[in-house]
Amino acid sequence: MAWPCTPLAGPIVITGRTDTGDLTALDDDLVQHVQAVAQTVRGTLQQWRTRPPASNEAAISELLASAARDVASSR
């Protein structure tokens, strides 16, 4: 089965941008959203080891639905 994207390994840095294009830290709300989505992705990938998605489209739909739910509940 082909994964919907290449898994990332190692540290990942997520930053924001200012109006002039400079990098800046994320505000606290966005940090909470990023953490919620990262946890969702980790959990989903773990589940897929025993129950892989039927297709790439199903995988993308599952991840997006789960991430949206978790971001909404982290507000």
Q: In words, what does this structure look like?
A:
- 52% of the residues lie in helices and 5% in strands.
- It has 75 residues and is mainly alpha-helical.
- The protein has a two-stranded antiparallel sheet with strand order 1-2.
- Strand 1 and strand 2 (23-24) form a beta hairpin.
- Helix 1 (28-48) packs antiparallel against helix 2.
- The longest helix has 21 residues, at 28-48.
- The radius of gyration is 15 Å and the shape is elongated.
User: What's the total count of β strands?
Assistant: 2
Mean pLDDT over the residues = 82
- Overall form: elongated
Output the helix-strand order. Answer: EEHH
State the oligomer: single chain
Secondary-structure class: mainly alpha
- Percent helix among the residues? 40-55%
Largest sheet: 2 strands, antiparallel
Number of helices: 2
* Spatial ordering of strands, largest sheet: 1-2
Our Rg estimate from Cα atoms comes to 15 Å
| Unreliably modeled segments | none
Strand content bin: 5-15%
Distance between the termini: 35 Å
